[in-house]
Design a protein that fits this description.
Layout: H1 4-41, E1 60-67, E2 73-78, H2 83-89, E3 113-116, E4 143-144, H3 150-153, H4 161-174, H5 191-197, E5 201-202
Parallel strand pairs: 1-3, 4-5
Antiparallel strand pairs: 1-2
Length: about 200
């Protein structure tokens, strides 16, 4: 024992220092490992990215709005809209339009032709009593170009089915006749025929 005392006195401090260093390292490793294990147990947080969803384009329909509207023509409208929306798209109805003749709540269809009719002039649209192509006075009053049917137009001298259809087509395309003189713009209406028809017609 007496022999060990000098050896212990000379070698104790280095061992104690080494033990202290090992203890500190062990503590630090243990502390750091606890954090590492905690981090490993949790999945990495990932910032959510907005997902871009391409919207489906709305389906459109193509309609032809004619008659008593301010801007007759072709219009593209969302599918499912009502007739009233189509008329508004064409600038709205004129003051001569007969809106009561239309179902304004009806949904429009692709390729549909919407014709806004003109209000009839009282006593002006009565069909003539004479037969088609008959001469002389054939009716009690003039025929209104604004509301005349193909059958009514054929009661006039020199107006057959083809020419009557042209008159109706011109009326629908141009939004009606402003005056009887506009009839002269219809293909097939010559100057002589125009003069013969003038007394029998009203705008």
């Amino acid at each position: 024992m007496e022999r060990l005392r000098p050896w212990l006195r000379d070698h104790t401090w280095p061992y104690l220092a080494l033990a202290a260093v090992l203890a500190v390292l062990g503590w630090r490793i243990g502390f750091g490992g606890g954090d590492a294990s905690g981090d490993a147990a949790q999945p990495p947080t990932r910032t959510a990215e907005p997902v871009s969803v391409a919207g489906t384009p709305a389906r459109e329909v193509l309609v032809h709005v004619a008659g008593e509207v301010r801007r007759p023509g072709l219009y593209r409208l969302p599918d499912g809209v009502r007739t009233m929306r189509a008329i508004r798209q064409a600038g709205g109805a004129t003051r001569h339009a007969d809106m009561a003749a239309l179902n304004l709540a009806a949904p429009v269809q692709d390729g549909q032709r919407i014709v806004v009719p003109r209000r009839s002039v009282p006593g002006a649209a009565a069909p003539a009593s004479g037969g088609a192509g008959s001469g002389g006075d054939a009716g009690p009053g003039p025929i209104s170009l604004a509301s005349a049917t193909v059958e009514q137009l054929q009661t006039l001298d020199g107006i057959g089915p083809t020419l009557a259809a042209r008159i109706i087509e011109w009326r629908d395309t141009h939004g009606g006749f402003g005056s009887v003189d506009d009839l002269d713009d219809v293909p097939g209406i010559g100057e002589g025929r125009m003069e013969a028809l003038r007394p029998r017609l009203a705008p």
